[in-house]
Structures are given as structure tokens and as C-alpha cells.
Amino acid sequence: MGVKIKANDDRILATATAVLLLSRDDLSQRGATPGLITRALATYRNDYASYKLAHPQRDRAAVSDLSALPQPGRRASYEKLLAAVDVILARIERNSTQFSSLLELDNFFAFNLKSFD
């Protein structure tokens, strides 16, 4: 029996926020490396406690903060990712997209952000 995740479900925005925050951490430490998105999704799902501890503020202001990325190239990569996630969220809302599981939701993000992976 699957879980129904509707377009307005908070878990969609929480997943998007986690992808952005964890990807920003990764970009600040390593730069753009293969597996950026899948690594962020895996960390979010498999080590939520660490994610929550590292990111006590998990909202739009937190994901928009670019201070962790002083390098212009890494900042530009993150700004592109931020814009791409905004497009995905708008598409989910516009199309009233539903997901039958968290895995399906994660796969949707990974597929739509594969250019960053």
C-alpha cells in the first residue's frame, strides 16, 4: 500500500529544501562533483538526524543564503540549481503531480535535476 503525496504536501517542499541545503554544503566543500543530487537525497533519507542538526533553519531564507559559497563558480552553480528547483516545484503545483511513495518523489527530483548530478 503506497503513500499518496499530493502536489501541496509539505514533504515535497521539505525534499526540495533538503536537496538545496545539502547540495550547497557539498558545493562549498567539494565544488560541483558527480552525484550531487543523489548524494543529497540519500543523506536526507538515510541520516535525517544529522541533516536536521546541521540545518536547524530549513526554509526559503536558509536555501537562499549564498554566504557559504564565496567562490563565484560554485555560487553560480548553486544559483542555477536553486532556479531549477523552483521550476520543478512550480511544475508539480501546476500539473497537480502526485507521488505514490517517497522513493518516487526522490526519483522525480533526481531525474529532473540530472544535469546537476
Describe the fold and architecture:
With 117 residues, this protein is an all-alpha fold. The protein is 67% helix and 0% strand. It has helices at 10-30, 36-46, 48-54, 60-64, 72-94, 102-112. The protein is globular, with a radius of gyration of 14 Å. The termini are far apart. The model has no long low-confidence stretch (mean pLDDT 94).
The geometry reads as globular
Terminal Cα span = 31 Å
- Tell me the major beta sheet: none
Strand coverage percent: under 5%
- Following the backbone from N to C, one meets helices and strands in this order, namely HHHHHH
Structural class by SSE content: mainly alpha
Note poorly predicted spans: none
Helix content: 55-70%
The radius of gyration is 14 Å
What is the number of E strands? 0
Treating each run of at least 4 consecutive H or I residues as one helix, how many helices?
6
